[in-house]
């Protein structure tokens, strides 16, 4: 095989999906985002499943120490028994709790201890601040 052909093959070879294995932090972050998306979808189906409105709020911030209690409360919620979407969501929440409390406990740094922030999250702004000189 000529060096030019080898170089061409190496350049056109598809890159690996992830150059490095996921870390505990990246797994917690991606799972919390996945849970947040599933919770929002569940809230959108509230009309078909009225019990959803009685589930605890599920705003997740993995840097807030109160998130562990929030995850426990959500899993222990007696509402929506035998609703498949809720059961799947509770399984994901249980998995995140286990990862945070067991496997990644030493890697996790809590920056906040504000339980109220998980109940009433600050609105996200998408506009730039008005800078006056």
UniProtKB/TrEMBL annotation:
Iron-sulfur listed as a keyword: no
Superkingdom to which the source organism belongs: Eukaryota
Signal peptide range in chain numbering: 1-19
Keyword match Signal: yes
Keyword annotations from UniProtKB, A to Z: Signal
GO biological process: positive regulation of transcription by RNA polymerase II
Official protein name in the record: Cytokine-like protein 1-like
Organism: Chrysochloris asiatica (Cape golden mole)
Gene: LOC102824964
